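Before drawing any conclusions, I looked closely at one protein, both as residues and as discrete backbone shape codes, quoted below without any editing:
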Amino acid sequence: MIDERRKSLRTDVEEMAYISASGSSTRCRITNMSDDGAALDVPDASFIPNCFQLMTERDRIVRTCRIVWIKQNRIGVEFETKEPPVITHRERQFLQYLRDTNWQRAATLPNSSKLISKLLENGWVERRGEGNNVAYRITSNGLAAKIRPVKI
């Protein structure tokens, strides 16, 4: 018997939607949805950032999403409902190195694994690559965090 980990029951749907992040959008298909999340069929899961906005085509509802699993070209997302975290001065300073949405090599950024982990956890940056080829870029949530009041 499979252990069910979902918070609420999902309903099968066939609805088109748009994934939006960092100024670009991708069309996708919602296969099932609940109050807490959804499963999406996407053209290429490797191009979908960890955090993004999802807008349904029919009713134009926009939800902030976080990827929780990936299987080929299907992704499972959780809808974010909590208040966005407050940014600290140190976090904002780091985000200044990522001025636009281009990838920056880790070697050109301040070396602070704890700070980078926090930025990744908050969905403010995303990572790609391994070893010496690691790079980071700011997400749309990171751009929004940069203009929020700083926690003192």
